[in-house]
Amino acid sequence: MTRGKESKPHIGIYGRRNNGKSSLINLFAGQSVAIVSDYAGTTTDPVKKSFEITDFGPIVLIDTAGIDDNGELGLKRVAKTLESIKHIDLALLVTAANTWGEHEDMLVAEFAKTDTPFIVVHSKTDIEPASDGFKQMIGRIHHRGFAETSVDDSHCVERLVELIRSAIPESSYRTPTLLGDLISPHDVVMLVTPIDIEAPAGRLILPQVQAVRDILDNSAIAIVLKETEVGSFLRRSNIKPVLVVTDSQVFGTMNRLIPQDIPLTSFSILLAHFKGDFDNYMAGTPRISDLRDGDRVLLLESCSHHSSCDDIGRVKIPRWITDFTHKKLEFDVVAGLDALPRPIDEYALVIQCGGCMITRKQLINRLRPAVEAGVPVTNYGMAIAYVHGIYERVITPFTLRTVKLES
Questions:
Q1: Which of 56, 69, 295, 354 is 20 to 30 A from 234 in CA distance terms?
Q2: pTM summary value
Q3: In CATH, what is the architecture of 188-270?
Q4: Domain 10-172 is of which CATH architecture?
Q5: How far apart, in whole angstroms, are the C-alpha atoms of residue 322 and residue 293?
Q6: 6-15 pLDDT per residue, tens
């Protein structure tokens, strides 16, 4: 699950070995898409399968290893199962034979830690239906519904889908807007997109594409150009954009070229406001000035990519922060959703990328240990703006909007 997840709602299936988790996926699909075996422990790593639910939309089901696995390898499978909870929108806790114990209690506790809603599913009811006592027992648990399933009951999936419709968070499937609260129809928005060694050949990077689409969805006008063309365009066109969004790496140049009465921000800060922990970023960014010799800084990249010789996370940001603070600092970079190399409280600062490849829930859960430990957190774009002396300018579009809403 290191690539993050798509915008489709992700539903994780959890439970003990041989409780019917893979069979449940096959019920959804109407075909054998997951390995089903009478032997416990068939599923190892979490396995994804995409589906389309009529009148709801696409979803992704994630089949996980049994929570009761044992042995050295089994415990690693359990760890991956528990880790996957951070990245889902809804959980199906699969039970069987009226059995509930410490394994189910552990899953419920993990769901609570990440604010993950869950539905209890009693499978194999053709062999042993759920008893009244079992139903009363789970009725005391804060779940979002209860369903019974059987391979002999073709209608059980329909009933479960209705529960999923009502239980899954709206934020998991609605289409939010990246710029819609900053612009109006017919507004002109300028997007500054440098073409450098890190730009994919023949393509724009995902945040730039998302911004273009969002501007069009809001019936506004997008002007896309390289940083080398900005000055001449403004002089020759006599067009005054209502907002300029730039790549953070050319903040300094854009701050000089864009008149002060035109709002300026970056793609990374747009994403920070759209899906990041923006309030904590606002509180954590100025803490860059508090870094001391020997402090360790963690940079979190939420996707994996080929590193260039002048990589933004591995090279540029460490260089800029070192030049700004004049301190001897240590930097760790973690790509994807991999485990951290050391305890979070050993870091003086955490800097998160824009998170274009992951969901808000994944990003918030990624930062949660740092926030709970009191470690300051910030975002690539906000950190870059701060060390370049234009932090207040590039967050103004969002702080002004907050003031307007409160008034």
A1: 354
A2: 0.68
A3: 3-Layer(aba) Sandwich (3.40)
A4: 3-Layer(aba) Sandwich (3.40)
A5: 10
A6: 457 889 999 9
